Every structure is written in C-alpha cells, then in structure tokens.
Amino acid sequence: MQYYVYILASKRNGTLYIGSTSGLIARTWQHKNKVVEGFTKKYEVNKLVYYEIAETQEAAALREKQLKKWNRAWKIRLIEEKNPEWRDLYEDIL
C-alpha cells in the first residue's frame, strides 16, 4: 500500500492545508465536495497542488508533521518546484 503527503490550496499563493492519507483520490474528493467539516471546508481549500509518496503510514505522518513546521516560503517553493502553474492535480491522479 502507498501513502501520500499532500498539499491543498484555495488558489495560487492562497490558504494551504497539509495532510496525509492512504487514499489520495478519495481524500481529495472529500475535500473538493466539502464532505468533512473543518478547516478545508471553511476556507474552501480544495485544489490538490502537491503530493508525494511515502512507503509507510509512519513515514507519511512524519513528513506531514515536518512540512507543517516549515515556513510559508518553503512550502510555496516546494509546490512551485513540481507545479509552477499551481494546477489542480486531481484530474492527473484519476
């Protein structure tokens, strides 16, 4: 099984959310369709702008915690290295 660490954005340079999951497609769909109450629903953070694969759930959780501690400029640089246009990657993973 693969695990993922992902970053959602409300728009380019907008509000960011970092999470981890074993089901990236399903989890992104939940954010997009506002299924779960909370931060992403309240701030309309639903564009998948970055993700990476982790080998284990523990590795994904550790990376998620690491990224959450990063300053905003580092997070933006990480996104723009792989996704300079801030495209919504959801269609790519379907």
UniProtKB/TrEMBL annotation:
InterPro entries from the UniProt entry: GIY-YIG_endonuc, GIY-YIG_endonuc_sf, UPF0213_domain
SUPFAM superfamilies according to UniProt: GIY-YIG endonuclease (SSF82771)
Residue ranges annotated for the GIY-YIG domain, each copy included: 1-77
Family (UniProt): Belongs to the UPF0213 family.
Name assigned to this protein: GIY-YIG nuclease
Species of provenance: Candidatus Doudnabacteria bacterium RIFCSPHIGHO2_01_FULL_46_14
Lineage: Bacteria, Candidatus Doudnaibacteriota
